[in-house]
Amino acid sequence: MQGTVDGFSYGLVTPLVAYLMACLGGALGLRCTTRAGLGPRSWRPGWLALGAASIGAGVWTMHFIAMMGFTVEGTPIHYDRSMTFASLAVAVVMVGIGIFIVGYRGATGTALFTGGTVTGLGMASMHYLGMAGMSLDGRIEYDTVAVAASVVVAMAAASAALWAAGQARGFLWSVGASLVMGLAVTGMHYTGMAAVEVHVHGTAEPATGESAAALLGPMMVGPLAVLVLAGIVVIFDPLVVMGRPSAPSAERLPGIPAHSPAQHSSVRSRLRARGPVEHRSRTPQRR
Questions:
Q1: Please, are residues 9 and 71 in contact by the beta-carbon 8 Å criterion?
Q2: What DSSP designation does 201 have?
Q3: Cα separation of 13 and 36, whole Å?
Q4: Residues forming beta bridges with residue 77, ordered by sequence position
Q5: Which CA distances in Å does 259 have to 107, 147, 197, 251, 268?
Q6: How far is residue 285's CA from residue 48's CA, in Å, rounded to a whole number?
Q7: At what angle do helices 109-132 and 81-105 cross, to 10 degrees?
Q8: Whose CB among 3, 52, 265, 267 lies 3.0–4.6 Å from 96's, allowing a Cys bridge?
Q9: What pLDDT, in 10s, does the model give residues 2-15?
Q10: CB–CB of 242/69 below 8 Å?
Q11: What is the dihedral of CA 140, 63, 224, 43, to 10 degrees?
Q12: Which residues pair with 134 in a beta bridge?
């Protein structure tokens, strides 16, 4: 018996909250990725790792907030704890690989294509691994075309977001990139959910695992803590907000005094104020 699938049990509440969480994780992660290219090279791995953790946590939180609105008529839905944890780890690791590729190779050409592809595949892998952790009194089937479309959406939008983050053109530019990243994650999620068909067995055997409220609520504490930590780091780093490196100090060469641009400007203005300089002739005057 085919069960009635409802992905919007709470109306637009879960999709909107899920989208906002995806945008938040994307904004923090992409800003950390941008910051990695603006500072010392020794700090780059730390910034990229924080960016990968932020995006992975945002993607995972978005997915399971959206899943709280997913119900199937005639059967309860439970989740396996180990598979749910594994989906979070896969998201962070694969997104991290994509971000490190772009962070070290640049957001252009082959590096952008490879990094965006790996990042998009990481999002899709997290989604379908989380779906594999579902347990219900029935059988889940997927439409192959819709699944392929969801993966393509994730890869294309992730590539666009990484390209925008690599431009480093300021805070508003990164906000736009995070909106694209949020669209990639939620678009992939609901495109994949449209591919789901559930055939309910109709038996009285309870599904194994834990309910969404009992399992996912406590498990979200960790990813949310990562997002809070990343937010604190971003807020207290002025360079992240400005989106550009500070002006390099003038190099002082041996025997040449260092002058600031303001000093050079004042010297030029004083020379202009003196007017033309009279040159004396070297020819001796006759008396």
A1: yes
A2: -
A3: 35
A4: 136
A5: 36, 62, 72, 10, 13
A6: 76
A7: 180
A8: 52
A9: 667 777 888 889 89
A10: no
A11: 110
A12: 79
Q: How far apart are CA 254 and CA 284, in angstroms?
A: 41
What does the pLDDT look like over 78-133, one tens digit per residue? Answer: 888 888 889 989 989 998 999 999 888 888 889 999 999 999 898 899 999 988 88
Alpha-carbon radius of gyration of the chain: 28
According to DSSP, the β-strands at 134-136 and 77-79 are: antiparallel
Q: In this structure, are residues 138 and 198 in contact, taking their beta carbons and an 8 Å threshold? A: yes
Does residue 139 contact residue 5 with C-beta atoms inside 8 Å?
Answer: no
Torsion of CA 26, 27, 28, 33, to 10 degrees: 80
Residue type, 282: R
Alpha helices in the chain (DSSP H): 13-36, 44-67, 81-105, 109-132, 144-167, 171-194, 212-219, 221-235, 238-242, 261-274
In this structure, are residues 193 and 134 in contact, taking their beta carbons and an 8 Å threshold? no
Dihedral over alpha carbons 112, 116, 119, 120 (to 10 degrees)? -170
Residue found by looking up tokens 């780091």 in the block:
233
Q: Which two tokens stand for residue 27?
A: 């904004």
